[in-house]
Amino acid sequence: SQKTLVVLPSTQFSFHRVALPLLNDKKAQAAIPYALEDQIAQPLMDVHIAFSQAFYTQGQYLALICDQAYLQNILLTLVQYQIQFTAITVDWFALKPGETALAPNAVYMH
User: Fold this and answer.
1) How much of the chain is helix, strand and coil, in % rounded to 5?
2) How many other CB atoms are there within 10 angstroms of residue 18's CB atom?
3) N or C: the chain end with fewer CB closer than 10 Å?
4) Per-residue pLDDT for 66 more than 90?
């Protein structure tokens, strides 16, 4: 079966370390936004916050934040062009450890 991975530019996201104990996904999803509230300029309802327990290290989550309208626009475009996708990720996460990718205006290294 084919997989379609939508890769978004990391320039549209801010990366944050969040010090919290390891929680189940539901509890982490509730706690992380409030732990970040003082670090972001936009209201919580205007941003999308993503995290994965796979990147939990040394008592910290790695959380990514983007503008909610930006992500909604991407999703609407995918629907408009009937693009079915398996997952959405950020360019840095699309690379395997040790990989490098060259783009017209950037170099990505993981």
Assistant:
1) 35, 35, 30
2) 20
3) N
4) yes
